[in-house]
């Protein structure tokens, strides 16, 4: 991962601010009604007069609305997809109007388990309704209507963001011109569900979790850190981990049985876990990871062919050869179902040793695929 770009440098979008949209009532797929509901969002670029250049960016499990730029001049790191969003980048802010929102159930400004329940005056905790990918999409729909956007040029996302992108095209076909689905699937594998459950159990078995009622006191930091460590292993490939760390020692000492972080990879995972605790809510991790587990287009529509029968968007589907969490075969399932319905879909399986998180790094083959696809789509709709 390259170092963070400077605010004044060519690679930075610059200073941005997070906005908040609140609406009075929201119906969850579970049947629960909640209100008011707030979504945190950021925008980059300018909506043109035809309002046909809007792109919605959907984030993965641990993401937020802050996808690009810096909030202050003192920020050490930019938004999570700053490498791809900005002037001259694949999501070119000189041409497109980019929207990124924090999902409902999140903890970065949108209403979630850590938000105050207006009925009790206390944080929701586990009283918050169960969240699905469909709920995330429905909440984003409210935001787009607030922004006056009737149709998206594209919706793009990797991992859970890809699930949202695909669901958008299925649920609201008339509002989506194109979809960029990266390293995602129509349903999570049993292995993926199992790994998510181990992470959730790490949180729920932390004595400080207190059945979700830890707000105002010490939270389940150890459990959340462990959950992140487990998750982070799944985001990398074995080859990448070997190249990055191998079996190199941080400190080799066999004189004691302290079990401290002797290997560099151990120290790295602990660092990732500790850093995650500083910015994420444990209950949101439980809710969002469960939403990923529940996502199943085959179950919801009977089969994938029927799931994509009514979509009208053009698709760009991208997978990575070393991604074992969302393997290429799962992307190919989506592509085959789209093609069986006669839909327009481009597919590329990018050769890389970087694993699932390839979509978050500065990777030229991915950038070219996204950039070229968006240019073609924007030219197509501009002629209509």
Describe this structure in words.
With 384 residues, the chain is of the alpha/beta class. The chain has helices at residues 133-146, 160-171, 190-204, 221-235, 238-244, 264-277, 282-294, 297-301, 304-307, 328-340, 364-382; strands at residues 19-23, 26-27, 33-34, 37-44, 54-58, 85-86, 91-92, 97-101, 116-117, 122-123, 154-158, 178-182, 314-320, 345-350. The strands form four sheets. An eight-stranded mixed sheet has the order 1-4-8-5-11-12-13-14, sandwiched between helices. The chain has a two-stranded antiparallel sheet with strand order 2-3. Strands 6-7 form a two-stranded parallel sheet. Helix 10 (328-340) links the parallel strand 13 and strand 14 (345-350). The longest helix has 19 residues, at 364-382. The chain is globular, with a radius of gyration of 21 Å. 47% of the residues are buried.
Order of helices and strands: EEEEEEEEEEHEHEHHHHHHHEHEH
- Spans where pLDDT lies below 50 across 5 or more residues: 1-9
* Approximate shape: globular
CATH topology of the domain at 188-294: Rna Polymerase Sigma Factor, Chain: A
Strand segment tally: 14
Main sheet record: 8 strands, mixed
Strand order of the largest sheet: 1-4-8-5-11-12-13-14
Class by SSE composition = alpha/beta
Distance between the termini: 41 Å
| Overall mean confidence score, pLDDT | 92
**CATH level 1 name of the domain at 188-294:** Mainly Alpha
Helical proportion? 25-40%
Spatial extent as radius of gyration: 21 Å
Please tell me the CATH architecture of the domain at 188-294 by its name.
Orthogonal Bundle
């Amino acid at each position: 991962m390259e170092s963070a770009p400077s605010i004044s440098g060519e690679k930075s979008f610059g200073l941005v601010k997070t906005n908040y949209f609140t609406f009075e009532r929201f119906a969850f797929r579970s049947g629960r009604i909640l209100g008011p509901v707030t979504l945190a969002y950021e925008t980059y670029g300018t909506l043109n007069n035809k309002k046909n250049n809007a792109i919605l960016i959907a984030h993965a499990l641990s993401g937020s609305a802050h996808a690009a730029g810096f909030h202050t001049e003192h920020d050490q790191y930019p938004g999570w997809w700053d490498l791809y969003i900005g002037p001259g980048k694949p999501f070119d802010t000189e041409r497109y109007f980019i929207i990124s929102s924090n999902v409902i159930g999140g903890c970065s400004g949108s209403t979630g388990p850590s938000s105050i329940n207006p009925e009790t005056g206390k944080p929701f905790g586990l009283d918050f309704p169960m969240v699905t990918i469909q709920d995330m999409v429905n909440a984003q729909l409210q935001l787009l209507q607030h922004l006056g956007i009737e149709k998206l040029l594209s919706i793009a996302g990797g991992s859970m963001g890809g699930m949202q992108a695909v669901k958008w095209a299925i649920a609201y076909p008339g509002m989506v011109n194109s979809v960029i689905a990266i390293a995602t699937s129509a349903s999570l594998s049993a292995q993926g569900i199992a790994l998510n459950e181990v992470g959730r159990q790490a949180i729920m078995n932390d004595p400080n979790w207190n059945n979700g009622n830890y707000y105002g006191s010490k939270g389940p930091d150890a459990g959340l850190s462990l959950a992140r460590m487990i998750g982070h292993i799944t985001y990398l490939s074995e080859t990448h981990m070997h190249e990055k760390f191998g079996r190199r020692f941080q400190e080799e000492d066999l004189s004691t049985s302290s079990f401290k972080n002797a290997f560099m990879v151990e120290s790295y995972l602990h660092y990732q876990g500790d850093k995650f605790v500083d910015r994420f809510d444990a209950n949101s991790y439980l809710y969002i990871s469960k939403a990923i587990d529940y996502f199943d287009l085959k179950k919801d529509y009977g089969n994938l062919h029927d799931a994509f029968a009514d979509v009208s968007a053009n698709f760009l589907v991208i997978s990575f050869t070393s991604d074992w969490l969302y393997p290429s075969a799962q992307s190919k399932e989506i592509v085959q179902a789209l093609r069986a319905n006669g839909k327009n879909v481009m597919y590329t399986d990018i050769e890389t040793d970087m694993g699932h998180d390839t979509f978050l790094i500065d990777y030229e083959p991915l950038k070219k695929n996204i950039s070229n696809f968006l240019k073609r789509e924007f030219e197509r709709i501009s002629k209509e």
